[in-house]
């Protein structure tokens, strides 16, 4: 868009990595996401996890990690198809007793197309039939070669079910993130991407969004896709009200007029009128495009 402002180096600060877990059905994506969530919830004093939004954060060795909590490839591909790049790192889960399957290949292709670094989690290591060597062998075909075999792909062996290997998995994510030198500018107005959104009977439009740059605050005038509004309230991944959200933070917001789509970009403007003008311009652009396609 026309609003891209470059951040100067001195404003850039380290930000948490945003991680997506992909892999073949039943290889353990959901179980792994749950195991990670339960291992280290940020603000665990809040008394457990009261609400489940489409993304969450954990902390390991003082470093936060953001997980997009929508297993499967749909969210990832949908967001990518809409031009959004939200993921910094992809974890490919492969069941040690099953090996590389069609959706494993698909996941590798998606990650490579998005130029995301890959960490392989060999899951279900607790099973007597687990054969991690076979998984590693199969993955060499895709140029995912373990370090001990002279390659540069990180493999971790886990049992999501038993919660084993989770710490090491988080360590590997932190290491990989360090190499990526992920930065953002918390001082500017927020921008980012919609993770999911719905219409709630009582609260109106509720959207889980990922702040990718800047800091989002209550009261901000926001344009999301072709809708707009003002951030009336914000909650974090464990349903605590928050007043602001910095880079790589997922938050649930209310106050937008219509329901945006997963993958829609959002951007905060310094005043309401501008936000509204831009949203209306986008709306009429979309209408014009639609008319063109119906005429054609
Ligand atoms: P998804 O389809 O990739 O999200 O897979 P799920 O997380 O739903 O797991 C599929 C099945 O495998 C469930 O019955 C899980 O309990 C089981 N499972 C997941 N991880 C493990 C593991 O580490 N060990 C064992 N034995 N079973 C697991």
TrEMBL record:
<comment type="function">
    <text>One of the essential components for the initiation of protein synthesis. Protects formylmethionyl-tRNA from spontaneous hydrolysis and promotes its binding to the 30S ribosomal subunits. Also involved in the hydrolysis of GTP during the formation of the 70S ribosomal complex.</text>
</comment>
<feature type="binding site">
    <location>
        <begin position="23"/>
        <end position="30"/>
    </location>
    <ligand>
        <name>GTP</name>
    </ligand>
</feature>
<feature type="domain" description="Tr-type G">
    <location>
        <begin position="14"/>
        <end position="183"/>
    </location>
</feature>
<feature type="region of interest" description="G-domain">
    <location>
        <begin position="17"/>
        <end position="165"/>
    </location>
</feature>
<feature type="binding site">
    <location>
        <begin position="123"/>
        <end position="126"/>
    </location>
    <ligand>
        <name>GTP</name>
    </ligand>
</feature>
<feature type="binding site">
    <location>
        <begin position="69"/>
        <end position="73"/>
    </location>
    <ligand>
        <name>GTP</name>
    </ligand>
</feature>
<protein>
    <recommendedName>
        <fullName>Translation initiation factor IF-2</fullName>
    </recommendedName>
</protein>
<comment type="similarity">
    <text>Belongs to the TRAFAC class translation factor GTPase superfamily. Classic translation factor GTPase family. IF-2 subfamily.</text>
</comment>
